[in-house]
Amino acid sequence: MGNKLRKIVRGVLMESLTETEPLWLKVPDGVVNELGIELYNGSDEAYVVEIHFDTKEILIQLYTDEFQHGLISYGESEEIPNDVKEYYSIPFGDIPKSLKGFILRRLDHRYHKYL
Description:
Elements: H1 3-15, E1 25-26, H2 29-35, E2 45-52, E3 57-66, E4 70-73, E5 87-91, H3 97-106
Antiparallel strand pairs: 1-2, 2-3, 3-4, 3-5
């Protein structure tokens, strides 16, 4: 494939991004509190796992540290009740500056224009 055609195809693929690759960015405790995310245990953690550009939202998943299994999602945990929320979707328009800055410092620069 010629360089010109390769460049065009790459450009089209980049424009059709719908979500990031898995990010696994641990959200700082202060930002978790600011978002109103309720952790089941005080030592549990929240991670930005994906950014969805098609629906314009950030997906945050909650994790707990279990002695036998290590860090696992709320959905996989036998210690977290089933009625406890495992995911939070934050629309782009509702992202506080603290979370947006945290993400942009860690996100691949090719995604910045979408966020």
